[in-house]
Design brief:
The chain has 556 residues and is an all-alpha fold. The chain has a single domain (54-519), classed as Amino acid/polyamine transporter I, CATH 1.20.1740.10. It has helices at residues 39-46, 60-71, 73-80, 82-117, 124-131, 137-174, 183-200, 205-237, 243-248, 259-263, 267-273, 290-319, 323-327, 334-379, 386-389, 400-414, 421-449, 462-481, 497-519, 526-555, and strands spanning 20-23, 29-32. The chain has a two-stranded antiparallel sheet with strand order 1-2. Strand 1 and strand 2 form a beta hairpin. Helix 2 (60-71) crosses helix 8 (205-237), helix 6 (137-174) packs antiparallel against helix 17 (421-449) and helix 8 (205-237) runs antiparallel to helix 14 (334-379). The longest helix is centred in the middle third of the chain and has 46 residues, at 334-379.
Length: 556
């Protein structure tokens, strides 16, 4: 398998770690700069056409921990719990999670199936090259790639904003709410935290893997400890509710009518939590046996998030006290206010800080996935200045420049918040829409064109039904994502997600027709390059033979 590596040099894959000499076609010796070439690396080179450049440090625990951390269940629920409460009260929080989570699980399993078949750090973007007709690959992968990139950047930007908000909420609690952070202070803290994320992601894969192992353990401990504490102390605090209130109380404060439509906005919290399914796919070139471990981690992590998230929402509804009071909290963080009301000042600060730590885990893992995405897209020349972002720092074996361009864009997007929080909220809303549609395009290709070859992890006969429902669900929930969450619609509560999404799609397609289609050919496929390489050799040999024959005839 390794002897087919030479054609990938046409794409100038350089700057990897270590040094291994391989004999390519024609006896030409090529140097692959990697300490050791595993079976997965040989498959990466021969089957998918990419030269191995990363160390495969991630095993079962660290990969599962990475996948769990991407959702950031505890902290993401803490920062999005207000949406179902405004939409329909406690019943919306409980039942929307159960219903929407099932749809999200269909997307997660569909993604897992594709990742198992094609484990590269390009993620589902790469699968277009294997599931769509060759003529369609460049345009489809172009749109899929840019949607995925936009979704990841928006996701990290929103997570960093949430981290800053939680940290400042803890500070506000410590001052008995006499300190109220301004938008400028939130933006400043966000920028500092994003730089911290960049510094952590500048470490080697070895240290990233060691840190990632601890994420899921800490997360589960906090989730269990907090739930028990809230249930145990809510009666004393006078904030507990009955089961009838939790499961049947519908309180529509959004202004939307009928209440059934308003109720559906509770899906937003779930969709923000259970998203970025393919983040684990973007580190598959750092995972041992990725065709098995990556899809297993994605599916199991989403199942854990689905079930644990539903239970955590129930706990919050049982212990939250008066809905109007927590929604009007001076710190604008309803769950942090619940912590404060039930557990007191110290308990509130402790668990709000824990939520901050967990959302930083989200940022660390999401930034690692984004940097690998930028690297993967750059080696296929999808993004501008691609040769810069594919450079690997020899000291760490990581794409350091891809990390810091990602940091730059996440901070730049959040600067919109200085002008208007409503405007920046629209960017955050784009995250789930863009990511989910970047998954649906490959899923539709798999269903329509029939070119898919399953990997070790697949759903068998259930695959077709699950894939279809994943696409239908994404279409349905996308409509909710672009709607204003409150009426009457004003400049202050308008949802600008559709404006940002439409603008990005318009400019990406304009760029495609003006320039992109002239140089971008889609994700690299080793077999195609090998065929072109051999065809060029045959053509050259035929030309030489013809000239020799012609020259011989002239002499005779």
């Amino acid at each position: 398998m390794a002897d087919q590596l030479a054609p990938t040099e046409l794409r100038q894959r350089k700057n990897s770690v270590g040094a291994v000499e391989l004999q390519g076609p024609g006896g030409v010796v090529k140097t692959v700069q990697l300490d050791e070439l595993s079976e997965a690396d040989r498959a990466l080179a021969a089957e998918f056409g990419y030269k191995p450049v990363f160390k495969r440090e991630f095993g079962y625990l660290s990969t599962f921990s990475f996948a769990v951390s991407i959702s950031g269940l505890f902290s993401t629920v803490a920062t999005t719990f207000s949406y179902p409460l405004y939409a329909g009260g406690s019943a919306s929080a409980v039942w929307c999670w159960l219903i929407s989570g099932a749809g999200c699980m269909c997307i997660a399993c569909s993604v897992s199936e594709l990742v198992s078949a094609y484990p590269t750090c390009g993620g589902l973007y790469y699968t277009i090259s294997r599931t769509a007709p060759k003529a369609w690959v460049p345009s489809l992968s172009w749109v899929t790639g840019w949607l995925n990139l936009l979704g990841q950047v928006a996701g990290i930007a929103s997570s960093e904003w949430g981290a800053a908000s939680l940290l400042l909420a803890a500070v506000s609690m410590g001052t008995d709410f006499t300190f109220a952070p301004t938008v400028g202070q939130t933006v400043g803290v966000m920028a500092a935290l994003t730089v911290l994320t960049g510094l952590v992601n500048s470490l080697s894969t070895y240290w990233m893997e060691k840190m990632t192992k601890t994420y899921v353990i800490f997360h589960i401990l906090v989730l269990v400890t907090c739930s028990i504490s809230l249930l145990a102390l809510s009666h004393r605090a006078g904030t507990n509710h009955t089961a009838k209130f939790v499961f049947t109380n519908v309180d529509n404060t959004s202004g939307w009518e009928p209440t059934g439509w308003s109720f559906l906005f509770g899906f937003l919290s779930v969709s923000w939590t259970m998203t970025d399914y393919d983040a684990t796919a973007h580190i598959t070139e750092e995972i041992q046996n990725p065709e098995i471990k990556a899809p297993w981690a994605i599916s199991m992590a989403m199942l854990f998030t689905y079930l644990a998230g539903w239970l955590f929402n129930i706990v919050l509804c049982f212990t939250m006290g008066n809905t109007a009071d927590i929604l009007s909290s001076p710190i604008e963080q309803p769950v942090a206010q619940i912590f404060y009301d039930v557990l007191g000042k110290r308990g509130g600060i402790v668990f709000t800080v824990c939520a901050f730590i967990i959302i930083k885990f989200v940022c660390f893992t999401a930034m690692q996935a984004l940097a690998r995405t930028v690297f993967a897209f750059s080696r296929d020349r999808l993004v501008p200045f691609s040769r810069i972002w594919t450079k690997i720092l020899p000291l760490t074996g990581t794409p350091i420049l891809a990390v810091w361009i990602s940091v730059f864009w996440c901070i730049a997007i959040n600067l919109i918040g200085l002008g208007s929080y409503t405007a920046i909220a629209g960017v955050f809303n784009v995250c789930a829409i863009a990511l989910d549609w970047s998954y649906c395009i490959p899923i539709v290709c798999k269903l329509v064109f029939g070119r898919f070859t399953p990997g070790p992890w697949h759903m068998g006969r259930l695959s077709y039904i699950v894939n279809i429902w994943a696409c239908v669900w994404t279409l349905f929930v996308s409509i909710i994502f672009i709607m204003p969450t409150a009426l009457p619609v004003t400049a202050e509560n308008m949802n600008y997600a559709i404006v940002y999404l439409g603008g990005i799609l318009f400019f990406s397609m304009l760029w495609w027709y003006i320039s992109g289609r002239r140089y971008y050919t889609g994700p690299l496929i080793e077999a195609d390059i090998q065929e072109e390489h051999l065809h060029a050799e045959r053509s050259s040999d035929e030309d030489i033979n013809q000239k020799t024959e012609k020259y011989g005839n002239m002499i005779s």
